[in-house]
Structures are given as C-alpha cells and as structure tokens.
Amino acid sequence: MVRVLTSAYDLGRANVVFKNIAMDDVRRALDAKEVRTVLFVMPLSERYLSLLRRLFSQTAKTAPILIPIENAGAIAEKERAYESFDIPKGALRGSPPVPADDVTSLRVAFYVVAKKSLDNDVVASFTQAITAARRDILSEWPVLAQFKAPDTDAGAYLPVHAGAAEFYNGSQLGFLDKWSNVIFLAPMALGALASIAAALWRFLRSSEHQPREPALDALYTLGRQIREAKNETDLLAIEDQIDNVLRSQRARLDGDDDPLDAATLNVAAHRLENLIHERRAVLTAAPAESR
Asked: Which position has the higher pLDDT, 42 or 262?
C-alpha cells in the first residue's frame, strides 16, 4: 500500500516518509507531532473501528479527518490487487457523522487460496462449509462480515479454483450427473469385451477343430477302399483303420461341449460299417455263384 501511494502521488519528491507505529503509540506520536497522518489498513467492522475510536477524543473539534484517495480508481486499474472503495458516511461516529460524507479510499483483499491440484469436490465442499459457518463465527472473527464471493470471470486478478467456481455458479454435479456416463457406458463396454472374448474363444476352438476335417476325409476315403476290397483280409485291415481314426478323434473330443463333431463321426462310422457288411456279403456270395 505504501509503495502504491508513493508512486501514485509522487510522495518521494515531497519528502514524505512512512514509518511503522504500534497501535498503542499512535496517540502519543500524534500529540508529539512525530507524525502528521496515520495510514490504517483494517477491516470496517465494529471490533476494529472501536480500536480506532479510542485513539481520538469524541468531540467535533478533535474528531479525525479522513483523507480521501482520489486516485483510487486509477490505482485499482493499474494495480489489480486493489479496489476503489467508498468508506460510508458515519463509519467512525454517527452523530455528528464521521466522516461527514462518503470517502473514496482503497481496499485490499485477503484471499483464501487452494492448490490447483486439489480435487474440485474437496474445494467445493470447503467453500460451502466456510460460507455456512461464517454466520456462526462472525462474533469471534468480525472480518468475516466482509467475506464475499471472488470474481469468477476468466480475466480475474486471481483465478478461481474450479471447485469453488462450481459452488458459486451453482454448477456442482451430483453423483448421477458425474457418473451417469460411466454407468451408461460401462455395461456397453463390458458387453463389447465379452463379445470380443467370445469371438476369440471361437477362433481358438476352431483352430482345434481343424485337424478333425482330415479325419473325416480319411473315413470318406475308406468307403472307396471298402467297395474295392478283394477279400476278408482287406476288410479287416480297413476296420482297423476305422478303429484307429475313431480312437484318435474321440480322444480329441473328450471334454468338448460341441456334440456336432461326435455325431458326424458316428454317422460316418456307421455308414462305413454298413458298407463293410454289404461288401462282406458280396464277397461271401461270389464263390458260391462261381460254383
């Protein structure tokens, strides 16, 4: 504040010197003419104003004179940490009023700040809590009487945390608002994953079924050999081949929940048995006809 006033009014050229004075020494310094003017930076609340009143006699002649800071608006435009502010009439005393009229001055704010990394819900809940508790602790902390919402504009001097902005703008999201997309999309995503897993499983199982196709081809090939068999020895050899194919394929089918392959093998084997029976009958009848 001293730097801003010194720069705005060129007080250095006027040989104005500022020095710190304890509150208890203000009255003595004024009476001893060690100082001509006192700069107070304090909240306009009764607790602090009562301290200020005790420094001055309660008479019209000895009442303090408040010096306006006429350039407050220009200072606030240049130094965005400050605001132009009017001290209201009668702020120090009501009758006669001191000051007699509104006095332009500067106001500097204290900020409750939070790390940007804090969760929005945490900051929003804290902002809501301190706003609700302000009324209860106002007697102990009168400075909270001037507690107000920060500037939520994008170009504010200090950016507002997103969580606090949600509280002040009334845009806090409830549980369903926040998680509705997840609730809606999660089953769809799980369903898609299940479909992909099922397709992959069918692909892997189909690779296991590939060796069975040559087995069926081998059985179908045996049908031609049965029709061309010349004697019982050939038929017995073919039966051994059928047994070997069926034995190996049934070992592969153990634990398989697909009955189609087993049924196909059974049909093919049954057809071959019928062919062997018919061919054996033909071979048995052939010598009798030759006689």
From this structure: 42
Residue 287 has pLDDT above 90, yes or no: no
The set of residues, in sequence order, having a beta carbon less than 8 Å from that of 43 and lying 6+ positions away, is 142, 143, 145, 146
Rounded to whole angstroms, how far apart are CA atoms 144 and 110? Answer: 11
177 is written with which tokens? 């608002």
- The answer to whether 30 and 38 are in contact (CB under 8 A) is yes
Residue 100 is given by DSSP the state S
Please report, as a single letter, which amino acid is at residue 17.
V
Residues 6 or more apart whose CB falls under 8 angstroms from that of 1 comprise 39, 41, 82, 106, 108
Yes or no: say if 46 and 138 are a contact pair by the CB < 8 Å rule.
no
Whether 214 contacts 252, CB under 8 Å = no
The pLDDT assigned to 225 comes to 81
Q: State how far the Cα of 49 lies from the Cα of 45, in Å rounded to an integer.
A: 6
- Which string of DSSP letters, residue by residue, matches 118-172? S-HHHHHHHHHHHHHHTTTSTTT-GGGGG--PPP-STT-SSPPPHHHHHHHTT--
Task: Provide the 10 A C-beta neighbour count for residue 147.
Answer: 13
Cβ–Cβ under 8 Å, residues 82 and 108: yes
* Per-residue model confidence (pLDDT) at position 260: 47
pLDDT in tens, 112-171: 888 888 888 888 888 888 888 877 887 777 777 777 788 777 777 788 888 888 888 876
pLDDT at residue 291 tops 60: no
CB atoms within 10 A of CB 287: 8
Packed helices 212-227 and 232-253: angle between N→C axes, nearest 10 degrees: 170
Indicate whether 106 pLDDT > 90. yes
- Cα end-to-end distance, the chain, whole Å: 137
